[in-house]
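so my prof wants the structure for this chain in the tokens format not the other one, which i didnt know existed until like an hour ago. anyway here's the sequence
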Amino acid sequence: KEGVPTHFVRREDDRNQTVLALKIVPLEVIVRNIAAGSMAKRFGIEEGTPLKHPILEFCYKNDELCDPFANESQITALGWATQEQLDVISTI
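here's what i got, hopefully its the right format
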């Protein structure tokens, strides 16, 4: 096995597969190596500016709320993910 762990177990045939049941972590994870899009606009940085190190951002996946930004403290306090889950996400 290589790569990112997933819920996929095996392909049964052309239309069916076996997967593990899971609880969705309701987060969008954004990794930025250069300033772009909303991040560039939010901080007034020119598009394409290289960053000194990658920036990891989280958004709560909720269309009605327009996917608001959330920090690790908010995520764990609201029960969207555990600190252990965030640690795994941060290392992938």
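also thought this was worth mentioning. The chain has three helices and four strands.
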